């Protein structure tokens, strides 16, 4: 029975801790959905959940845009869905530090 336990050290690294492992797993699941319409609906549901989990973002200007940016960031920019906002590139969202 103890063999089935999953430890944080054996799990994937959390990309954005403020959303937690469950949201990250949901996004990983959305990546596996082949039907584009269903994938889009699921991505929008994840965005809604992310908004509920972080109500402090509602005070941030364009908080919905920020949520979509976070969704793409967590999916490692592999998620093929339509965002209502201009697509941010990985270089813009994850800038490299200056030497």
Write up what this structure looks like:
With about 100 residues, this protein is mainly α. Helices cover about 45% and strands about 0% of the residues. The protein has 4 helices and no strands. The protein has helices at about 20-30, 35-55, 65-75, 90-95. It is globular, with a radius of gyration of 15 Å. The termini are far apart.
What is this structure's SSE topology?
Layout: H1 20-32, H2 36-53, H3 63-74, H4 90-93
Task: Tell me briefly what this model is.
This protein has 99 residues and is mainly α. Helices cover 47% and strands 0% of the residues. The mean pLDDT is 85.
Total helical elements: 4
The portion of residues assigned to helices is 40-55%
Number of strands: 0
Rg over C-alpha atoms, rounded to the nearest angstrom: 15 Å
Question: How do the helices and strands follow one another from N- to C-terminus?
Answer: HHHH
Task: List the keywords.
4 helices; globular; single chain
């Amino acid at each position: 029975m103890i063999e089935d336990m999953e430890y944080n050290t054996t799990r994937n690294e959390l990309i954005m801790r403020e959303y937690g492992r469950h949201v990250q797993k949901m996004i990983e699941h959305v990546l596996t959905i082949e039907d584009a319409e269903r994938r889009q609906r699921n991505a929008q549901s994840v965005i809604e959940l992310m908004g509920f989990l972080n109500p402090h973002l509602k005070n941030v200007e364009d908080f919905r845009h920020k949520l979509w940016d976070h969704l793409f960031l967590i999916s490692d920019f592999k998620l093929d869905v339509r965002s209502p906002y201009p697509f941010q590139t990985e270089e813009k969202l994850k800038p490299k530090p200056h030497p």
